[in-house]
Amino acid sequence: MTTSPSKVALRGYQVAAHEAIQRGFAEHQRQLLVLPTGGGKTVVLAHLAATHQPRRTLVLAHREELITQAVDKIRAVTGLIPEVEMADFRASLNAPVVVASVQTLVRSSRRERWPHDHFGLLVVDEAHHSLADSYLNTLRYFDENAFVLGVTATPDRGDKKNLGRYYQNIPYEVTLLDLVQQNWLSPIRVKTVPLEIDLDDVGTTAGDYNAQDLGHAIEPYLERVADVLAEHVQRKILVFLPLISLSRGFAELCRQRGLRAEHVDGTSDDRGDILARFRRGETRVLTNAMLLTEGYDEPSIDCVVCLRPTKIRSLYSQIVGRGTRLYPGKDHLLLLDFLWMSEEHVLMKPANLIAADAEEANAITEALGFGGDLEEAKGKADADPCGHAAPAPPPECKAQRADIRRAGVRPVAGRRGPGRLCADDALAWRPGHEPTARDFGQVRR
């Protein structure tokens, strides 16, 4: 197996993903990699671009933040110098990696600057958008002569179109719960606020709740929600709402209760300053109307409030994923949920983040009750037919996992040797394989 030159070591599961992708390309031209938000998919695609040199790589993204993030990460991880194709920025024809805006390449005059066989690898960031015509036009122009890798946090698409119509294989998939158990992502604790919000009069547009209708349904409850947030003043809270006007108003309600809150949207002239204040902790509550669902990385967030209910699992995963990254002193993410009243059974709930299907999601939701640890709730829901709960990790191991997270220590990935376990062995607990406290001691640096 060819390895890629790198300045940044891959984690164990990222090594496995990279190798599985390479093997998969022996049989499949178009593949889909599934990693949860915070799993480091950009690092994997950076290594893949380096591996495929001297063939050139084209990375497609639909937001400026994603393009900037990809450029910075590829440079930091591999030392390759990507160039940008977006609006007034034009990449040279000899760039080893081009990171391009989909909206720019939809214009044939920009896309056809390169011959059909110019790129050997096409990478689609946030690949759940791949079936849109804007993506397919560019992919079809290049894909007869290149391998294609889509990367996404979830393999499903909100409008129910099947990504399998384009992608031929999923070479590797790791779940949110896998990475929580391996100590790469924060555990999630759910607190259900006893506030009933009626959604029965909310219509559907393009497969999801209509944003304007949601605004009308949610607005009467915002003062009470702000009261709840005032009880969590020590948290760094990210709030999602359906409308800009609602987000701006909710930030003001929070300020009235003594919270240091700000609103941000795509038209904010000082958007960078707002995000910087939130990063430094000068602002403790940041509200937005779906601006920060993709390409926003702030690991210190330890509370997410979703006031934008959705039917789309990928969107819900992205929202919650803004708070799942590790950070020193942070031992879990608090997810504030509400009693959304709807006759429909497609509303995404915390359990949908880790459930395989609707039946399992209902069982986990019942086990959660009005709050608790999502992983523990799944353990209760996985109880055997005799009513015995699935075995849990020993208490001393869970305690040491929490100690490791608070200290900001990462497991050692990809190292094996006499008397040393790799992180995947020690922390990827499954029923029937219970790591000991000694195992956890061997993954400290």
Number of strands: 15
Please give the count of helices.
17
Write the CATH architecture name of the largest domain: 3-Layer(aba) Sandwich
CATH homologous superfamily placement of the largest domain: P-loop containing nucleotide triphosphate hydrolases
Number of domains: 3
Helix/strand-derived category reads alpha/beta
Give the C-alpha Rg. 22 Å
Largest sheet: 7 strands, mixed
Alpha-carbon distance between the two ends: 28 Å
Q: Rough shape?
A: globular
The helicity comes to: 25-40%
Question: What is the CATH fold-level name of the largest domain?
Answer: Rossmann fold
The CATH class assignment of the largest domain is: Alpha Beta
User: Mean pLDDT across all residues, rounded?
Assistant: 85
User: Approximately how much beta-strand content do the residues carry?
Assistant: 15-25%
Report low-confidence residues grouped into runs of 5 or more.
384-392, 408-445
Strand order, largest beta sheet: 11-12-10-13-14-7-15
Provide tags for this entry.
445 residues; alpha/beta; Rossmann fold; 3 domains; seven-stranded mixed sheet; six-stranded parallel sheet; 15 strands; globular; forked DNA-dependent helicase activity
